[in-house]
């Protein structure tokens, strides 16, 4: 189970670090082609979501790696479950049903990461 955690956590961390960094650093114009919703939410909210994603990516990997507060990996993974639940609801409210399967996949992977993280704690 430990190997499964590191594989899933590594994939999730890479995705969320990339996505979060984009939201934190890029302009609304640069984000628009990939994230059409950025025009409908305040820019500080977009930046906050990016910060949460980057922090969660760090939380999935660093605490178990260094052995300091490894339970934070469980918290980060559960946080991603809730983040994707909110994202799916947001996409459904905007009639963007095509986005929801990806949200559900990420939610499922985060749930497995939370479960597997208990083996590395």
Describe the structure.
- α1 runs antiparallel to α3.
- The protein has one domain (2-120).
- 79% of the residues lie in helices and 0% in strands.
- It contains five helices and no strands.
- It has helices at 2-25, 28-31, 43-66, 71-93, 100-120.
- It has 121 residues and is an all-alpha fold.
Describe the structure concisely for a colleague.
The chain has 121 residues and is mainly alpha-helical. Helices cover 79% and strands 0% of the residues. The protein has one domain.
Radius of gyration: 15 Å
Distance between the termini: 12 Å
Q: Characterize the overall form.
A: globular
What's the structural domain tally?
Answer: 1
State the order of secondary-structure elements, H for helix, E for strand: HHHHH
Give the helix level as a range of percent: over 70%
Count of helix runs? 5
Mean pLDDT: 94
Poorly predicted regions are none
The portion of residues forming beta strands comes to under 5%
């Amino acid at each position: 189970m430990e190997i499964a955690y590191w594989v899933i956590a590594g994939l999730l961390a890479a995705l969320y670090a990339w996505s979060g960094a984009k939201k934190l650093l890029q302009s609304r114009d640069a984000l628009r082609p990939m994230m059409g919703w950025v025009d409908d939410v305040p820019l500080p909210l977009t930046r906050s979501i990016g910060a949460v994603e980057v922090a969660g990516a760090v939380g999935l990997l660093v605490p178990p790696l260094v052995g300091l507060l490894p339970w934070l990996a469980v918290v980060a993974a559960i946080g991603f479950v809730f983040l994707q639940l909110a994202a799916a609801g947001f996409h459904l409210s905007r009639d963007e049903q095509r986005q929801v399967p990806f949200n559900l996949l990420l939610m499922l992977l985060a749930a497995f990461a939370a479960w597997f993280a208990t083996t590395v704690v």
